[in-house]
Amino acid sequence: KHPQPSDRSECLLCQSRNALPRSHTGDVRGNTLIDIGSGPTIYQLLSACEKFNEIIASDYTDRNRQELEKWLKKEPGAFDWAPVVKYVCELEGQREKWAEKEEKLRKKVKQVLKCDVRKPNPLAPVTLPLADCLLSTLCLEAACKDLGTFRAAVKNISSLLKPGGHFVTVTMLKETYYVVDQHSFSCLYLDQESVEAAVRDAGCVIEHIKGAPEPTPESISDYTDLVSL
Ligand SMILES: C[S@@+](CC[C@H](N)C(=O)[O-])C[C@H]1O[C@@H](n2cnc3c(N)ncnc32)[C@H](O)[C@@H]1O
User: Fold this and answer.
1) Which of 55, 58, 72, 198 could bond to 154 as cystine, CB 3.0-4.6 Å?
2) Binding positions for S-adenosyl-L-methionine (predicted)?
3) How many CB atoms lie within 10 A of CB 103?
């Protein structure tokens, strides 16, 4: 269902359009998905694994890639994602299938690669066939120190995508830092216009933009908004 305009999850672009693009209906699917800057997390792949046959995860740091591998290989000390997996399964209407989803995701993640979004081929020296979908959540604003680097990084990662493929991204707006386990990480301050311009300049057509709820008082960063495209 297309959300009502009063809903904060509305598409900020096309309230008046009649024909909904595939991304509005959640029907973004295909053979391969590349996740850029996966970090040590899998939450962003839980719904994607129902729609793609092969997933490539990637990150800049060895520690994050090792942590991800630990979960994929069920090694001792791996983070327990079960509560998150159960929550996502509940949203998808199948809470009881959470263990199956974990196994499905483990099978579908084929590689965890080194990645640097500042390089023209972010996955160099690996060259992959162009992907049907590119996903990047909360990565570019952490990886890029200035707007020029951010704009170049959007172009760099878009080069991994097939013409007509989908680029799905979630970006914190107006954030200058975030905190993980008492360590503070700096972040590039971005407004929505700059994010949209960078995505368009990389050759993408924006089909869907969604805002997110206001940050809570206990938030672990100073962001004021979040946008997914
Ligand atoms: C805030 S975390 C986001 C992780 C995950 N995608 C998520 O949604 O929680 C930012 C990630 O960007 C990665 N990163 C930092 N610099 C990078 C770069 N130059 N290229 C690729 N990834 C980078 C970090 O290692 C970290 O895992």
Assistant:
1) 198
2) 37-38, 43, 59, 64, 116-117
3) 11
